[in-house]
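Slide 14.
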Amino acid sequence: MDVKTLSEVIANQGFPIALSILLIFRIDKFMQEIVTAQKDGYRQILENTKEIHNTITGLNQQNREYYSLRFAEVQKELSGMK
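Slide 15: predicted structure.
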């Protein structure tokens, strides 16, 4: 095998292999960025969900307190009517 044939084999076989390896590393880096972005998105969703839950819980507690007081007032009025 002469040098010309050897260089053609390396050029024809080596370049696609090198290009494939380069593309694999780029795709891997891109996939890692996607995973990181997903984790950040999930974390933000979880934080927002906790905030919504706390707000709803607070409103429910306020409603319970309001209606408990109102119920007590109505009971006093009804007991006075007897």
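Speaker note: The chain has a mean pLDDT of 87.
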